[in-house]
Design a protein that fits this description.
about 200 residues; two-stranded antiparallel ribbon; globular; about 40% helix; 5-stranded mixed beta sheet; single chain; alpha+beta
Length: about 200
């Protein structure tokens, strides 16, 4: 595609529209390649490569990566990091994939919205747990799909593969956590998960 772009630039014809399409196609191809590499990396690993992480820092990094990686104009991700404790033992790449999947799904669910607003919030249900809620204002969940949406190859999208949420569930469970979905009271859906906090006695 880049070679085609260079050849068109040498043409005397007005190819500005075609060049713009090629630029978008190139960006999406590179993005797809990164997703495939991440999925291959996930499949190769038998166990997560866990390190001490800040959940809030991980969320911020995932947010910035998504917004800078082709998020549509008008897509807003608000953060409400209310958890007092956020240290976890986790695989950075795997949890990053969970956030990427949830944000991508929210983006697709809000395609018809004038303003696509996503809220990622954290809290501590108790002293040993951190909870993350990813709430969108999209089309919502189909009836009775709160649990079934995590089944492999289950999707409501015309061109969806039905693997993103299933992989996310596997990742969260491999981190000794739990993930679930429920309707958003204000319209849309909320995907939530909990993970155990890092025991302060294991800091060293």
């Amino acid at each position: 595609m880049r070679v085609a772009r260079r050849l068109l630039q040498k043409s005397e014809l007005d190819c500005s529209n075609v060049l713009a399409v090629l630029d978008k196609a190139t960006a999406q191809t590179l993005r797809a390649g990164r997703i495939v590499l991440n999925l291959k990396d996930l499949v190769r690993r038998e166990e997560p490569d866990k390190t001490l992480l800040s959940m809030h820092a991980l969320i911020s990094a995932a947010r910035e990566a998504f917004l800078s990686d082709g998020a549509p104009a008008g897509f807003v991700i608000d953060l409400s990091c209310a958890a007092k404790k956020d240290r976890i033992l986790a695989d950075r790449a795997q949890l990053g994939q969970v956030f990427a999947s949830l944000m991508h799904n929210a983006n697709e669910a809000m395609q018809l919205n004038e303003i696509a607003q996503l809220l990622i919030a954290t809290s501590n249900p108790d002293d040993k747990t951190i909870r993350v809620d990813v709430a969108d204002r999209g089309c919502g969940l189909p009836d009775s799909s709160e649990e079934g949406c995590f089944d492999l190859f289950t999707t409501t999208k015309v061109r969806g593969m039905g693997v993103g949420l299933s992989i996310s569930k596997s990742i969260i469970e491999a981190h000794d956590g739990r993930i679930w979905a429920m309707p958003n009271a204000g319209g849309g859906a909320v995907f939530s998960f909990t993970l155990p906090l890092q025991d302060s006695g294991l800091d060293s």
